[in-house]
Write a structure and sequence with these properties.
The protein is an alpha+beta fold and 944 residues long. The chain folds into 5 domains: 296 residues, Alpha-Beta Barrel (TIM Barrel), CATH 3.20.20.300; 157 residues, Rossmann fold (3-Layer(aba) Sandwich); 140 residues, Trefoil (Trefoil (Acidic Fibroblast Growth Factor, subunit A)), CATH 2.80.10.50; 114 residues, Sandwich (Immunoglobulin-like); 120 residues, Galactose-binding domain-like (Jelly Rolls). Helices cover 20% and strands 29% of the residues. The chain contains 17 helices and 50 strands. The strands form 14 sheets. Strands 16, 19, 20, 23, 24, 25, 26 and 27 form an 8-stranded antiparallel β-sheet that branches. The protein has a 6-stranded mixed β-sheet with strand order 12-30-29-28-13-15, sandwiched between helices. A 5-stranded parallel β-sheet has the order 3-5-6-8-11. Strand 28, helix 14 and strand 29 form a beta-alpha-beta unit. Helix 11 packs across helix 15 and helix 12 crosses helix 15. The longest helix is centred in the first third of the chain and has 21 residues.
Length: 944
Amino acid sequence: MTVDSPSALPFRDPHLPFAKRIDDLLARLTLDEKISFLHQFTPAVERLGIAAFRTGQEALHGVAWMGPATVFPQAVGLGATWNPELVRRVGEAVSKEVRAMRARDERVGLNVWSPTVNLLRHPLWGRNEEGYAEDPKLTSAIATAYTHGLRGDHPLYWRTAPVLKHWLAHNNETDRATSSASVRPRVLHEYDLRAFRETVEAGAVAGVMPAYNLVNGRPNHVSPYLRDPLRTWTGEELLVCSDAGAPSNLVDAEHYFDTHEEATAAALLAGVDSFTDHGTDGSQIVERVRKAYEQGLLSEADIDTAVRRQLSVRFRLAEFDPHYDPHVCTGEFDTPGHRALAREAAEQAVVLLKNDDDLLPLAPDTRIAVVGLLADECKLDWYSGSLLHRSTPLEGLYERFGAERVEFAEGVDRVRLRTAAGAFLQVPPTDAPDEARGAEGALDPALLAGRTDLPPLTAEVTGTEFALVDWGEGVLTLRAPDGRYLSVAEDGYVRASADQPGGWVVQETFRLEPHHNGHLLRHLGTGRHVRVAADGVQVADSGDVFEVITVERGEEAVARVAEAAEVVLVVAGNDPHINGRETEDRTTLALPEHQQRLLRAARAANPRTVLILTSAYPYAVDVARLPAALWTAHGGQAAGTALARVLAGDVSPAGRLPQTWYASDADLPDLFDYDVIGGRQTYLYFEGTPLFPFGHGLSYASFGYGDLVAGVADGALTVSCSVTNTGDRVADEVVQLYGRAVDPSVTRPRRELLAHRRLTLTPGERAEVSFGVPLSALEFWDVAHDGPRLETGPYELLVGASSEDVRLRTTVHLDGTGPAPRPVARRGLAGVDFDEQSGVAIVDRTRTAGDAVTPADGGTAELLYRACDFGPGVTEVSAQLAGEGVLELSLDGGPVLAALHLDSPTAGPYAYTTLGAGLVAEGVHDVRIGLRGPLRLAHVGFSG
């Protein structure tokens, strides 16, 4: 071996610190090589013996998109466990499967894009299934546990490198690449940043991914928050990976920059280190970075900074120390332990919503009717792996109660489709093999839009009955008698070719559109209509008119089996690929009408009807006439077994709702209203009566609470109580501690989660539960002084089984600081630091930093700034303004005292000018500012 051998170079020396090794490697890379590292798919550098690398392996609740893997409950289901220790074990199992799969398939990456820590602020968000909770404390607790499991316990080398998604304030799929979330400073610091902060500070996060949307008028991919506060929260290098296609969106969709060179340079300078764009082709990103460098928009030092962060992750993954990698032989795949963990997680995620007269659990000899569109389904979502094992509710009930005691009716509508010529659509016979997998079990993307090795549908005099399901809003699926869904492939033919609806563009959904005396059948994936051609049924610009002949309504089958049963289980919910998923928000909390019909039919036939909701999000359902109801997220491979064990009482349910279940759509804010404080959103501020509150969940046991003790010492609250299982079975209880300021000077949460503990107790067992809560958890962001503040005064501590089921309470007095007037004579007023507003949108002050305010619709807006101290007196007001319009200022709700007129439009939204006027004021007053017209306000100053 010579000194020039790559293996002898300092960056290969495991005895040197990572920082020195990265310095050495950076110095050896050429500029072209470093630029090539900035794309998601980093090429190999053969002269240095460096392998290719890619960022991004989806692992939200199991390894996704790479073929069969253990499938755990959806993220919202993991949140419903309220059990960080369990979730840490799930993360550990997932990371071991990543390692095992990587060992046999180099396409599997060790930089995992998970978890999603976006807060579940709005239940109509299409990606609700991907988050953990609406509460930042619970979200950060679960996310921290999952990242610790993914990272592993070794002090130096990581098993996988987790990246948090999606930075920042991202809760809408509608216009997600162009919409801007208006986030006031208090919401930013008290809500959206908190889930990220506590997880990053815990030390198991390798990086973050910016979201597609804009925040305060600025795309997240050029957010100054990527520097501060994000990178101030940890001493480790953080790798920022763009979301797919987002770098190009800066120009193509958002029109925020004129050229891709400007956009790419701005993103890199803001803190983006790896550009996910144009698939595996890195040439366009490389060209943009090179041109930006040549145009002087970037320096080589800027490029080095980004490459250093990527290399930091690669070194932590032991890529350059394979002989020292503690995880190289620790990969495990589909082990008995992982299968048992999947079942345990699914069991712990079940939430018992209602259980009048102790209808549940069911006796072993109960005659059961199980009905509903999800009764014999084990649904996956976009971020699931392929199932190795499958358990539906029906299969779980057969296994637990015996097939002879369980009757089943799916409840689909059975229909025939007849053309005007009198022929029926039918599925021709075929001997084609039932094979839809590519090499090594990985999903073949070409088959996600429907297989082409099967013959297309035909039209014959004798017809086929199809199972029709209306998933809501008129979105239909049609299933052939052999169980396959009608689908359309790229060749445009309709075939019974899909095992389930799925794919980025779902090709298995249709809509019946009334037309003359029949219906057109529109295929939603292509937007085209179904027509019968000589060589088969296909989609075209014009379609045939079909008569829909209903052979049997779903509720008829449901009623038959319900009448003969002792208990009816109605399994309802959603298909995660339809009406609510990535790229598509829901429009209502209501259960789809088809499923409401089935529920009504079951309840009319048998009052002992239990509703089992299996869904990725909350519903507003009428449970008043139902004796019992449960909810679980789609629970992965063990969902059915877990559900049956809970229904039988083998496991006492202890899942808790991770978000508020509202009673109706009328309780919801606008999807784009990110002001949780002003909009009174989530359990923190909602003043109405929810269907079920945050933290709600019942048990088959009962629990007594007592002995509450609270104190303050060394900058923390200490709270303890006793919890006793007063029931007759082993059960888990989730003890929840909330706090609230009793007499706050500003709007504060009605109550906020401070800590929680899930514990298992045997009958009669008593446990002492203690919590330590830093006083900083009770701080708020004081816009008057631009920083966090703990307010002096009384705080009520609430302990119980949900945010509304409070069993114990006490009050402590905390010594902080009292409210102080804004020193406006010295500091002026930042436009965004309002206390209250009406009609305001927060926008970017410049492309790189700062916020301004403007009327949301270009019309008028009102701003209130309380307790502004003018000192001994001022005589003039000035304002930094852009656009055109009028600023009006008044004190204490009185008449307008100063009006600043910007009569001619400025050169652009960032071309601020300063206008002044006379204003005589002294002492402390509330300041009201009105904006009239498309005017941007950055800052108001006072002098004299």
